[in-house]
Design goal:
The protein has 68 residues and is mainly alpha-helical. The chain contains two helices and two strands. A two-stranded antiparallel ribbon has the order 1-2. The longest helix is centred in the middle third of the chain and has 20 residues.
């Protein structure tokens, strides 16, 4: 059984998939933020106070270490 879609429907579906992957809370973005947060937290656990990093995203501190 063949199914025919209108061009508008395909464009809408493509836009929805794009938003899911890369939107504000998209899968790619969430993965990258969590990966970076874990990496920076691991770094902060291994170094001394003066070399620690504070991880900010959209003016929100996401690293476990918030600073001195």
């Amino acid at each position: 059984m063949k199914r025919k879609f209108k061009i508008e429907t395909l464009k809408r579906l493509k836009n929805e998939l794009n938003e899911l992957n890369t939107g504000k809370n998209g899968i790619s973005g969430e993965f990258y933020i969590e990966f970076s947060r874990q990496r920076i937290n691991q770094w902060n656990n291994l170094v001394n106070e003066e070399n620690k990093i504070i991880y900010n995203v959209n003016s929100e501190v996401l690293s476990d270490w918030k600073g001195k």
